[in-house]
Amino acid sequence: MLVSTPIGNLGDVSARARDTLAGCDLVLCEDTRHSGVLLSALGVRTRTEALHEHNEDARIPAVLALLQAGRRVGLVSDAGTPLLSDPGFRLVRAAIKAGLPVTAVPGPNAALTALVLSGLPPVPFMFLGFPPPRPAARRTAFGRVRAQEQAGLAATLIWHEAPHRLAEMLADLAVAFGDRPAAVARELTKRFEEVRRGSLLQLAAWAGSETVRGEMTVLVGPPAEEEADVAGLDEQLRTALAAGSVKDAAAMVATATGLPRKIVYARALALVAGRT
């Protein structure tokens, strides 16, 4: 049983979620200490055990044995809907393969809440979880998505990010996708909930000038229908050139777009020389 839990506001827990957790023989938690606070507040005394990224594979046989014996096992993440950027997928896949029933109690989700508050097109959207923490891997990941756009993808893009990496992530997004409309949602459903809307460069400047705290969801609008490949390349190059050398800008944009580095470098030189 996959049980969604509040992303901040305890009032968002459903009666069904509370009853389901109370009726389980075991609740698997990403962090038993974190979930223990929630269960205590709900008056749920069900036994808990940890299931996280590092022990999920090892726990699967024992959990399947419990399910096969007719025990009721719940799964919660630290907040929101399980499996989405959280552990549990491998367990669910194993349970399905074993022919065991799997069901879910729907509820709060940070990505969807941010999407409907962003002012960006809500359909279609693509949720991409957390980007890689290292800059090179992050830029490569953004480049792959940009290549998908060049092949026809047009959707609002959604990521989660840690606050200390937010400014760098937004700057990398601007290089990869151009200075598009975007939004940053933080502390959703909590006391200091805030949704910042603007262009990627505006949001990067804001994040770089303040100490931003809280859990972050970052959204980038889809490419404009009239966006031409050459214009998009020039926009990305100008953004990258504002922050670095011709060589570094060309390398970054080539990675982001998947275009040959020689072509991107030549275009960067032309822009610097004013031959647009």
Structural class: alpha/beta
CATH topology of the largest domain: Methyltransferase, Cobalt-precorrin-4 Transmethylase, Domain 2
**CATH C-level class of the largest domain:** Alpha Beta
Order of helices and strands: EHEHEHEHEHEHEHEEHEHHH
The end-to-end span amounts to: 58 Å
The radius of gyration over CA amounts to 22 Å
Q: Rough shape?
A: elongated
Q: Into which percent range does the helicity of residues fall?
A: 40-55%
Taking the sheet with the most strands, its summary is:
5 strands, mixed
Instruction: Specify the CATH homologous superfamily of the largest domain.
Output: Tetrapyrrole methylase, C-terminal domain
> How many DSSP helices?
11
Which strand order does the major sheet show? 6-7-10-8-9
> What is the number of independent domains?
3
Q: State which percent range the strand residues make up.
A: 5-15%
Uncertain segments are none
Task: Give the name of the CATH architecture of the largest domain.
Answer: 2-Layer Sandwich
Present the secondary structure layout.
Blueprint (H helix, E strand, L loop, with lengths): L1 E2 L11 H8 L3 E4 L2 H11 L5 E3 L5 H13 L4 E4 L12 H9 L6 E2 L4 H9 L6 E3 L7 H16 L5 E6 L4 H12 L3 E6 L7 E6 H10 L6 E5 L8 H13 L4 H12 L3 H13 L3
Parallel strand pairs: 1-5, 2-3, 2-4, 6-7
Antiparallel strand pairs: 7-10, 8-9, 8-10
Helix pairs in contact: 3-4, 6-7, 6-10, 7-8, 7-9, 9-10, 9-11, 10-11
